[in-house]
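Notebook, bench 3.
Goal today: get a predicted structure for CRAL-TRIO domain-containing protein from Zingiber officinale so we can plan the truncation constructs. The sequence was checked against the plasmid map this morning, with no discrepancies at the termini. Length recorded as 337 residues. Pasting the sequence as submitted so the record is complete.
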Amino acid sequence: MAVTSQEAIHQLATLMEQVDELLKVTFKNMHQGYPMATLVRFLKAREWSVSKAHKMLMDCLNWRIQNHIDDILCTPIIPADLYRGIRDSQLVGLSGYTKEGLPVFALGVGLSTFDKASVNYYVQSHIQINEYRDRVILPAATKKYGRHIGKCVKVLDMTGLRLSALSHLKILTMISTIDDLNYPEKTQTYYVVNSPYVFAACWKVVKPLLQERTRKKVQVLHGCGKDELLKIMDYASLPHFCKSERNGSSSRVSSAGAGDCYSLDHPFHQQLYSYIKNNAPSQGYALLPKQGSLHVDVPTGDTEGTKITGMIQSKLHLIGDDSKLPSSLSVLHVDVV
């Protein structure tokens, strides 16, 4: 007999009541006052299988404990110049909010170089942004809009995407695995903009592999996506690379100072960095190594992200050297979803 969603939630909640106190503490840090919504996220990620969702959640809680994730917002990346280098090479930022109050995160997929620090630093920075989103940004949005807001939207800028991205697949796979297994169902929609030929070729391979619930979340927009995105957010919340129709323009060159949400000088990153420094124990902060990254174990699992990465790698090798692609292909876009 099939289990209804309410029965599944009840069963998983009952199982959670039986875990030890240490697991309950880190679970509380996760759910931020909305435990049932968190249970639903894990159930959705495992197609409403209570046993699979329970295992996924237990693995997540143990990963958090073993890697001190609850304390990661007390561990600044120092010195500031190192963190600035990370921000210049791992392009991500908060550009604003949708009309419904969901945070809008911008990601410079094509122009991120991941070449200013070790892999551990980029993983640490990514998790810190995840945790700051879940513990600070989303609760603040919930309070402002008077209803629970537990998800965000992401705008992925593919400007500059080349076959050299193969060198980034290792770190992207690590980040994807962490998100798949420990932060499931935190993104409502992925909007893909400024898509070159390389992305179009990969998307044709990747799309059939995605689960239906994931596939429905991805919308590939024409050009910079401005017209479509303005239906769900105000102009001020558009990422800077969506405010220009110049195809192929650099998302860094087209930015305007403080309007570049990737920059360490942007209010989001200033507030995030200050939050982490202010939460670091004063004595411990003074004793932190000047360039010692926090090592976080990447959980293992057969996730969509790892499967897709392998397929992308194979597809890119088949395409060959992008320097040989005809220039007319560099501006081709996949069909608008």
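The two ends are 36 Å apart (CA to CA). Confidence is low (pLDDT under 50) at residues 247-256, 321-337.
Flagging this for group meeting.
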